[in-house]
Amino acid sequence: MRRLLVPLAAFVLLAAGCAPARTGTLGPAPVGASPTAGATATPRAPAPAATTPSRRPPPASPTTTVPVAPDESGEGGTIVVQLWFVRDGRLAPTRRTLPATVATSRLALTELAAGPSRAEAAAGLTTRVPTGVQVVRIADGVATLAPPAGFADGGAAAVRLRRAQVVWTLTQFPTVRGVAFAGAAPVGRDDYADLLPAIVVTGPSVGDRVTSPVSVTGSAEVFEATVSVRVLDATAREVGTSFTTAACGSGCRGDYRATVRYRVAATGPGTIEVYEVSPRDGSRVNVVAVPVVLVAAGR
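^ thats the sequence. predicted structure below, dont judge the formating
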């Protein structure tokens, strides 16, 4: 029996290593506060709680439809949901810490339609998603949507950006790999990857309280994969700087993580600025500015 188990285990490991990688790097919506969250945007009213049990259903078979409510559940407390808004015609993420609910897909779509907070709007974030977008079912990794009237208004470019917001937001959940709109073929993140800016910042988010050293994460497609970061205080004075390299450089997008130390005399507003240094003239280009609260050491 042992002789049979060894090759079987090796086969399982090999199969896992050959499985296709899921598009994007977002995992499930975690339960509890964000690692850098503190003074986050004021939560909006959550979607009505579902009446289905909070425990997960068994894995779906090819002919089984999984109800919407149990796609990701929280055990009380709070849940962190990432929302993909729009800035300058491109996708831009932010996070919300909200009361936990089993209906996270419904919660995410409600927040997406409600739009950015005042702080997020001041940072240039907007939404193209109207109220009333609903997930009819989630089956075989595909979320089927029932768009409200007017969802297809505004021209092809506006509709595509609207759909991209929904797709990138819903596919953060492990039960959703693609989204089907009104009976159309399912689409995923790769179908809208061209709507990402050169630099995406996934953390920290607008309004987060951060401490030194602050971890800055995201993805980028920049010259020689070099991503630069600086921390500015309330007077726009540079109080910290660093750089890192993304996992992939020019011509491809890669994830990055940079750690930046800063020093301020008192806790107060500040800005995390992520950018690319122009190979032509050394100027800062593709700048993404994230307003945060800088916590002074020992506070």
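Confidence is low (pLDDT under 50) at residues 1-74.
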